[in-house]
Amino acid sequence: MTWTNPLTLLRHGWTRHWNPDRPVRTVVSNLPFEDLKKREQPNRRYEGNAIRTNKYRLWSFIPMNLFEQFHRMANIYFVGLAILNFVPVVNAFQPEVALIPICIILALTAVKDGWEDFRRYQTDQQLNNTPCFIFSRKQMCFVERRWKDVRVGDFVRVLSNEIIPADILLLHTSDPNGVCHMETANLDGETSLKQRKVVPGFSSLVRVLPITKYLERPDKRRTGFGIDSLLLRGCMVRNTDDAAGIVVYAGHETKSMLNNSGPRYKRSKIERKMNTDVLFCVVLLFFMCLIGALGHAIWLETFSSMPSYIVPDSNGNYTPSVLAGFYMFFTMIILLQVMIPVSLYVSIELVKMGQIFFITQDVELYDEELDRRVQCRALNITEDLGQIQYVFSDKTGTLTENKMVFRRCSVMGTEYCHEENAARLAVISGANEEEEVTIYQQTKLPPLFPLEELQDVHTGDKNHANTQVTAASRRRSKVAAEAQSDMAFSSPLETVVVPDRKLILEVDRQMASIQTGPYLDFFLALAICNTVLVSSVTAQRQRVRVNVADLAGAERVGDVLRALTHSTKTCGLGKVFTSMKFFKRGGETLADPFSIDEDESDGFHSSDVSDAAGQKVISSERKVKSGLSGSEEVCYEAHSPDEAALIHAAKAYGFTMMERTPHYVTVKLPDEALLKFEVLDILTFDSTRRRMSIIVRHPHTKEIIMYTKGADSAIMERLGNVFSGDKIKCVEQWCGWKAVCFSLKVISEQEFRAWSAVRQEALSAIEEKEERLMETANFIESSFTLLGATGIEDRLQESVPETIQALRRAGMQVWVLTGDKPETAINIAYSCKLLEHEDLVFTFSTSRKVLQCQLTNASVPEQSLISFTGPLMEPSIGLVIDGPTLSMAMSDELVELFVELCKHCRAVLCCRVTPLQKSAVVKLIRQKLRVMTLAVGDGANDVNMIQAADVGIGVSGQEGMQAVMASDFAITRFKHLQRLLLVHGHWCYSRLANMVIYFFYKNVAYVNLLFWYQFFCGFSATAMIDYWLMIFFNLFFTSAPPIMFGIMEKEVSDSTLLSLPELYKRGQHSEGYRRSTFWIAILDAFYQSLVCFFIPYWTYNGSDIGIFAFGTPMNTVSLFTIILHLAIEIKSWVSLYTPLHHCTITPVLVYFIVTLAYSAICISCNPPSDPYWIMHKQMADPMFYLVCILTTVVALLPSYYNKFILCVCIYIYIYIYIYIYIYMTLEHKSSLKSLGYICSNSQKYIVWVKIIDFSFMPKIIRILSKDHVP
Amino acid sequence: MMASSYSAKEEDGHHSGSAGLGGTAIRTRKPDNTAFKQQRLPAWQPILTAGTVLPAFFIIGLIFIPIGIGLFVTSNNIKEFEIDYTGTDMSSPCFNCSQSFSWNSTTPCRCVLFFSLDQPFESNVFMYYGLSNFYQNHRRYVKSRDDSQLNGDERSLKEPSKECEPYRTNENKPIAPCGAIANSMFNDTLDLFYIDPNGTQTQIPFIKKGIAWWTDKHVKFRNPSSSNPNLTAVFIDTAKPVNWRKPVYELDTDPENNGFINEDFIVWMRTAALPTFRKLYRIIQKKNNMTPTLPRGNYSLEVTYNYPVRSFEGRKRMILSTISWMGGKNPFLGIAYITVGSICFFLGVVLLFIHHKYGNRNNSSDIPN
């Protein structure tokens, strides 16, 4: 349910009225109109940049919240009842009192909603107050403002590593080529840098020209003009000192806000089920009222003349019996309204809040590295975690680290295994990550900040500001230090490559002798054939949190910046920094290895200006000190993790790319010589060609060489001389790893010139530009010479196989949906134990007709398999299906068959699927099989799937926040899923299920007391219990214990749940809350209410007892019964609500105190009922206690006995069950040990009884009947 | 603060990396590792086993059976005598009275019933009148009263609560006491005579005070302006309830038992829970230890028959009962206790048997490791 503020709708309607739907958007620069009032601004009709995601305002909170709360049927029902109280014929006792419960419920919910909304408001405020720079005409410079001050038409400057405040049309960058890099991780999760170009014609910062821009109106598919010049809100500027542009979309009109659908409300399975049970209760209530109404009418008919106890109306007339019966129906509704638990909904919300609190507090789900807890974004589906049957997982970044590891390479047909590298990998994954941690430490900034250097920088005009700057930058440095560990694609896995000894010898030999050769070419290709940028440490990507920007510090920095802007105006900014850098560098003893040219200012100086240059110096110093692999460290900004892995591999062999400018690439060779290649052209990577090329001129030979890298298939088919069959073979053997082939082509001068001309033409073409560029690229990229291939592995995340196995044992089907090719996916599937080697794997990637045959054929042996493996063994069938085939399989005629097949598969892998297909698969399974689904993913391509599933889980790891934003729960590692589902899911489910059942039970048990009484009061809807006490009973005496129960009950300990994932099945099959459970609870309630009514009735029948004196023991007894019933249900008495404390004693004490006080004070306060001194009188009477004891015992005896009988029955079988369990299904000795521990415990069967909770009973019997008894 | 330093220590132990983060107190979002937040609070898990359940059954059985026997014996020792004087039978002496009834008949109808007690009633004897099929618990009937008027509130006296309708005003005067409950007050008069074996009748003296709850008489019910002893003046502007023969200030001659604090009235006003009920009418106090309060022999009950019950097929009874600590005679509770106790005991035995038979098989089980 998406919630739309009615006011917003209104406003939208209004603006539309004034601003008729025009397809173009006219944006005028605000600068000439700076002095005008707001009303006269040309862009006044566009939204400001301030965002508001909170629903309520202060003044509208109460009406709007009420309006929203009345969307709930239950609330309408209760308010309707409260109003019914005021209808005179209904003869309510005290209509005002009837309002109390619903008011309390509404108020509680309002407080909760208000608190949630306030938190949203706070984050909005934080975002709105983020500083940014807006050009001011008056001051002729960029001045610091807040995000909320940004308007459409403003000129905004964004610095490196800053988040873009609005959708900006790029007009200027510090890059001489007019390029600005942007990381869209916050928006779509892609970590690769996007290039944005300055709008043609605005190479330098346009000062004060009114600019009119035409753009399409903002909608979700924004195309057309400006898409490659638009900087999007929420993205981060990278590798560009600063960029400036005009704001075209602000606030809620920006792309990120349009994509943000706001918080989601899902209804959990239990809640859906519960609602039907509420309906059952309504039906039950209806029947009870009907019985009352009929009874009353019939009762009235029995009188020949009216007896003195039937009171006529005020005119002295008697209502006809039929009409009286009709009225009585409504009176009965009022009397028995408690049947529908008014406090159930609010209790559930409270319980869920408590559950979420405990989930987020779980230290096991906390990620030390990212400093992140598990996030619960959906507040009302905690218990769905305990009912998952299908898990759909993304591969890259979810199962794997998305950190590429250079695994092997093959040059000249010889394979180099890099076994050390592999071994080191094993060490890292095995030995508690200590190595990784130490490496992080080394890359971190020194904690002490050298003050002197800073002061040097700021000599001159800014002395007074020094201290502040220092403080601010120290704070920043801390942030930077924290963020170091978050550096994208530069984890030790990628950066540290241990060279293969054989290969390094080979390289050395060639290096020493001939200076050229395939080996050298191979590594040169590795080093230069990429789009990796070299940058200094401070400019590296940091996962910047929104609140990083320290306001005071930013102001200071702003001062510095303003001064600089004044002096340099436009492009000279870079020069100032360069000169400062030179100045500093002069003081250093250690020589910086790279030469600094004027034109390299873009690449190298992509530094964070706000760091005020000081850090840069330190970091360069640090570089030398903490060199890792012997030589100096260079930091690479890679677009993708595999590029990073490759360039680091080249570096490990001594081929270090030192710098990259648009025109040159400098590579340092193993013999310390620098080679500076002139870059003639770069043919960037695209998904159709699946390769990229770089055309360079060799500095020595002056040859024009094209290095191409690409996927194996993309290269192999275009090889010039097919001499290397064995190479191909070896690459094919590596199907698990991502194989990247490198090739080389020497182009003659003429050929290049001819091609270049065509290329230029294509570049300047207006029509069919894409096609023509593709054509030119394809033309030149042919007849390569294969240099070699590399194998890159995406390392599995920590304990993924264990997690998958646990999920499997818990009865969940795990599917992997990935965009990768089948080979990679299958390999990962094997390594994460999704597929076992003995499994039968069907791979579907065929045309339509064949597929149909396959499907039918596959499902036939399926049946036979099941028959011979028997029920204990799951048929091990894996299904691998690729995207196109999948879409065929999901077509109407095949879909049933496909689903049927999938049901029998142990694992399903869908490869090469698009995001939409992912969600389609999830939806299909969810709808066809009616199962609870969970989708887990980390990237933007998983968003659809996450939203389609019942429970969406976002992994906040390598890729941005998009998946997290769409998810219901956000975790940091895949392994957390195990604990989240098996422990928290189980707990939340069983807690909530028990609580809901208990609530129904409680209300029915209580209300029926009143109902039975109707048979003895002429169905006149008399209550023998004081009205106030009835309300208190529900609201205070008996509501806190079940809420505590719902939050804190621990059916089974977490260690047991983790060691026996099978226990999860209880939730999967909804065994905690079934229709039968509900009806048993209702029956139990009926029984107990009968006991609670009739034992006092027979005791007091014929005596001189008064109405309310008669009701008092019943009220007391039902309190005892209800509380003790809960006590029987509770399986672990956490000390916070110890039995003799919170759960039983407190409500009972409160009850007695309140009742005694009430019946002492209330002489004539509550007219119809007559509570005065009744409780005291009763408590002075020994009969009262005797009645209470007997009734409680009789009422609870069956449920207590039942529990015990089941215990006895089960432990007869338990030994056999354990035996079967261990020998038949357990695979690991470790689990066996944990079982053994349980079993060697003297109370073994008891433990088992608690674990199994009788729901396993039928299964055990089934197993036993199959003659598996040893 | 305590919690954070604690968690910092934890961190040192496990992840040496984060400690090197500059040593300053960088605030992490790591949850506190406390027993509460990690749901590791010590918990007691009650285990339903033969060892814990069987004793419970036996204990319940062993406690309940004696209690039940005690209750049963006590109940049996209570002497109770009941006589129906409705007069529905032609043979009944009250038949005539019951036929010609009217709330407002001026001439009281009298009838006399004779009965004999087989056993003497020792100690104090409580005399009740019992009504059957009288639904004093009818919703609208229960509502039809004004507690603040009964509590002596002047304003309520002048202007009774709306709930009293239609027994609120009569001839434009407020009714005191208003409402249906008061209006339908039981107004038979019962007198008891002991008939000596020689034929002389002696009236048995009744005590009519002390039959209502002390709190009702002294707190809940009060005459208006209690300083004024002249009740006639106090109730001057009020009308009597429609069905009453005399106004409220003439219920008794004793000023301590007149007006709203008349105990018969108070007893009636405490509405009965069930349609068959009894209400305390008089107490016959024990004279001395030598003679029983009511010796065995013949008695006559003289009824001034005012109260009509024929319209709802009600019955009127006179009950004489002695009283024990458990109130009136009621064998139900004792029997119930005995039954429940026996069932528990029996279940205990059965379960013990099962436990012995099958429990042993388990002890020999040994899981190989």
Q: Could you explain how this protein is built, in words?
A:
- The complex is a heterodimer of chains A (1270) and B (369).
- By secondary structure, chain A is of the alpha+beta class.
- In chain A, the strands form six sheets. In chain A, strands 12-31-30-29-13-25-28-27-26 form a nine-stranded mixed β-sheet, sandwiched between helices. Chain A has a nine-stranded antiparallel β-sheet with strand order 15-14-24-23-22-21-20-19-18, sandwiched between helices. In chain A, strands 3-2-4-11-5-9 form a six-stranded antiparallel β-sheet, covered by helices on one side.
- In chain A, strand 21 and strand 22 (704-711) form a beta hairpin.
- Chain A is elongated and about 125 Å long.
- The two termini of chain A are 54 Å apart.
- Mean pLDDT of chain B is 83; it is low at 1-25 and 360-369.
- In chain B, strands 2-11-4-9 form a four-stranded antiparallel β-sheet. A four-stranded antiparallel β-sheet of chain B has the order 3-10-7-8.
- Chain B has helices at 2-14, 16-19, 50-77, 95-99, 139-143, 147-150, 154-158, 180-183, 214-220, 231-234, 263-269, 331-363; strands at 43-44, 80-84, 109-117, 125-132, 169-170, 173-174, 189-195, 201-203, 277-284, 297-305, 315-321.
- In chain B, helix 3 (50-77) packs antiparallel against helix 12.
- In chain B, a hairpin with a 5-residue loop joins strand 7 (189-195) and strand 8 (201-203).
- At the A-B interface, helix 11, helix 13, helix 39, helix 40 and strand 32 of A face helix 2, strand 1, helix 3, helix 5 and helix 6 of B.
- Strand 32 of chain A pairs antiparallel with strand 1 of chain B, so a sheet runs across the interface.
- Chain A: The active site is at residue 394.
